[in-house]
Amino acid sequence: MTVELSLTRDPAHIRHGSNIGQPMTRTDGVLKVTGKARYAADNHPAGMAYAVIATSCIARGRVTALDVTAAKRHPGVIDVMTPAHKPELAEDPDAKGNPFAFRMELLQSDEVRYANQAIAVVIAETLEAATEGAALLSPRYQVEIARVGLDAGEAYAPPVVGIGNPAEVRHGDIDAGMTAATKLTDATYQTPAQYHNAMEPHAMVAVWDGDRLFIDTPSQGMGFAQMRIAGLFGIPPANIHINSPFLGGGFGSKGLISGPQVLGIMAAKLIGRPVKLVLRRSQMYGPVGHRPPTRQRIRIGTDDAGVIAVINHEARVTTSSFDDFYEPAADASHTLYASPAIRTAHEAVRVDTGTPLFMRAPGEATGSIVLESAIDEAAFACGIDPLEFRLKNYAEVEPTTGKPFSSKALRQCYARAAERFGWAGRPLQPKQMRDENGFLVGWGMGTATFPAIMFQGNARAVIRADGKGVMETGAHDMGQGAWTALAQISADSLGVDFDQLTFRSGSSDLPDAGIAGGSGHTATVGAAIHNAGAAVIAKLAELATTDERSPLFGAGNAGVVARGGRLHRRDDDARSESYAEILARAGLAEVDATGSGAADAAAQSQYAMHAHGAVFAEVKVDPELGQIRATRLVGAFAAGRIINPLMVQSQLRGGMIWGLSFALHEEAVMDHRSGRILNANLAEYHVPVNADVPPMEVITVDEHDPHVNPLGIKGVGEIGITGSAGAVANAVFHATGIRVRNFPIKIEEVVMRLG
Amino acid sequence: MMNFDYVRPASVADAIAAASEKGASYLASGTNLLDLMKGGVSRPSRLVDVTRLPGLDRIERLADGSLRIGALVRNADLAHDAEFARNYPAVAEALLSGASAQLRNAATVGGNLMQRTRCAYFYDAGSACNRRWPGAGCDALKGENRLHAVLGWSEGCIATHPSDFCVPLVGLDAIVEIEGKGGRRELPLEALHRLPGETPERETALERGDLIVALRLPTEAKGFARHARYIKVRERTSYAFAVVSAAASLRIEDGRIRDARLALGGVAAKPWRAREAEQVLAGAAPDAAVYREAARAALSGAKPSGDNAFKIELAQRIVVRALTLAARGTPDRIPALPGSPFSSVAGA
Ligand SMILES: Cc1cc2nc3c(=O)[nH]c(=O)nc-3n(C[C@H](O)[C@H](O)[C@H](O)COP(=O)(O)OP(=O)(O)OC[C@H]3O[C@@H](n4cnc5c(N)ncnc54)[C@H](O)[C@@H]3O)c2cc1C
Ligand code: SF4
Q: Which residues form the FAD-binding PCMH-type domain (chain B) (predicted)?
């Protein structure tokens, strides 16, 4: 089984000018809208069986009985995988080999650690038989009382938060700041548990061939997945071939391979046939990560003029009973506002849920809505316009580290978005504005920020004898447009027209592109592509400039430029030679080179690197019924170089809708006794529908950042949610005078206080 | 595969015979029933598919001015029938405020009437629920119940009926035509859904085998067309069930309310007809004070069944709003955001 994933491109993608910066539509767009894009679960290898997970309906305890006989007796059932009957694993799934090896349930015991955990897998000839087989298992349990919610137990200080951040950070003298402050905002906020809910459920189609494994599965990190699977099954990573050309969204939940995906591989091994396993929507609420609930107390002290003297941001988060992931919510206060004293601290409570994981701006989102709300409160307490207050406390250097920013066009973001929104003249007092129909109108704002993160990624560039270019990288397209944006960078890096490029991606057989997360994929893989392209062009240049038969002879490496499939002398554009000619003369079928991208540690130690933005929101509130409706969102973002304005607009708009969702809609509701999630479906787990999404405007502010990476790319994937959530919440306050500190803002909180 | 019989009877009589067996269930478009089956909440041993039954998909104007709607008419087709929307605008608005366009295209009139509660514990096979398992207890009672009933509930069950459609209908004295083993009978819609009392598992007045064949709107129902609104507060603008809703239908003559019909949704196990409020309104001049009095009357018997005291206050305000808007006059066309408070002018 090989995977050739080069896409056939549409003529619409013929380039106009250079590729980077062009608003090309998606190269995979036609495939997607015609249903030809093959997602993991669309694969049906010959002889495939279906596996269905039986999940626990208790949140804590043990499984004492499973009626395997009944399940097996059901027509079509092939086998039932249980703790007593499963393939041997080479590694304990609870072993913590590295901080990213999150513990998973692979039927290693009869213990239940959260509701919706896998307790058996039924494998059958049809999906229906497997589904019924799973129901027939009728599990019995020994139930223990579930620990649910932020007060479920003793809080403790976690060892680290997020990815290795200290749980507590202190900068300056907090006590002195508190003493100096003449006005203090001291507020406690709560944010709910949220689930990623990517449209595409986690799916696995697994085929074993001896000790080689071929899998179709959506992945935001094929390299990581290979390593984990290799460890669990005791085979070399190179034996694992992952095919993941398209993801129907991931939002972090497909960053690391999850337990259910591995169960699909185990099932295939157990029965010696290809197996498909797809999670049901409800099964996505548990084993694939989530955003934990938080309770955050934030104190902001200012002087009378509204200058911040201290920020003390404390967060309590939940994590699972059996592993460690701590949402770094308070860290949002590290970078945005200047303050002589800043403290952030976290504490955690263990509960009977799956382990929370990275979800859409983990920490940044939860922290941002609270910080931006509290900043709004502080500005109001000082009687200062929220924008003016933010400008007054503008961080010229990163407050907690003192480092200069590699670039920071936040002032321009504020100015452009405020202008576009029409912020000027906003009354300071709430409940002052009504529309022509009598609805309360409120305007709120928030600052957006997200760190410019890079991982490690690689690419391989090839120039072929026909002069065409090939770029290979095992990158991940979660819908964000990697197939397009990375191909644009590839064409430029190879100096070929877009239609002369074959771009291969989405497979682990290609160079490891790291992880599509942290909004760092385009930056990381873009840099790898850029370097691979430069390296292969250097080889071509070497061939040409050292060959006296070439018109470029003697120009030296630095003396040529690559463009349109030719090398030109820098000092004499008329002297040029095509790639095909160079390779023909050298008698080569192709030249290739590899390149890698990673953060520049030296630059990182010198500079603070973040994308920034400003979001302005208008909401309307029914003065008696309390129904809230967002009516306008304007955001301006400075995120380094924009590779493809269309994709970037989509990312930022999507992010802003997440923000709206955070403020007004999204929440997983858990029964406090059983620990089961009561709205584990898309009907009742509310995300905004089209009718909730207001007219939106996204402005990108030019930013040339010479320090972040060779292409000057920051990330745009997650920043949109930050700032926006707070902006919407602040607009609700401005409309009503009611400060709701429990998110999402619910009707009862508003209606009962509207008077 | 979970095995069940599937039959597609050719006549109403065959359907009734097929559905009279224990464990049988009618299947219309399945937008509710199939979800329940997938979740293991309903496990019928036989599905009697009624969607091909002849003659049940018609909207008929009867000689006496009443309207007969076949049980298989799709929710969307009914709402978009121009004459229907003109004569019963609040019903059309309620229909269009429910579910999503795709669901409305599939859902039938009969299925909408007979849809089950959305109580999360009812859907969660692991929870105790008296409706699913008589005598098991009710996990909603001390659970997550901010959206549960405030009227007509019992300790045995605090669920609400989720239909939007039924709310204006019950105000208009709609009649349900039923065919069963004993022949044909009629029932006011108001008597179709039962309050839980001691027997929450008995959700409706239908007996085994009973098939709803049509819904009838009496002649007088048209008389409210000029002053009718449906207002629904929900947690997002579309594709969400009502937190609370109200349908107000008024007949105003010479500056007085001659006849008033008021019903509430999302507050009880049935669409809640507020007759006390109607009495307050009848004969009164339409003004804010009388609406408020009517609202108080409508909710006079309400009490919270959990964390939902706000619904009592909210319901009163929605009643006032629905009455205010109805008195102001039915809009020329159904608003772009049907049922939404934002489809109209706010405030009284
Ligand atoms: C995600 C979602 C959101 C929704 N939101 C809303 C909403 O906001 N407002 C709203 O009002 N509704 C909403 N609905 C419910 C929707 O209106 C119902 O599912 C639909 O009306 C049911 O019609 P159906 O034809 O599919 O019925 P089915 O699912 O086929 O049947 C439902 C029940 O009715 C019985 N039945 C069907 N026809 C007859 C008959 N003729 N005689 C006797 N019994 C019969 C069946 O046996 C079954 O028990 C929503 C549904 C979903 C899935
Ligand atoms: S409220 Fe009614 S439907 Fe809900 S759990 Fe209780 S008995 Fe069941």
A: 1-222
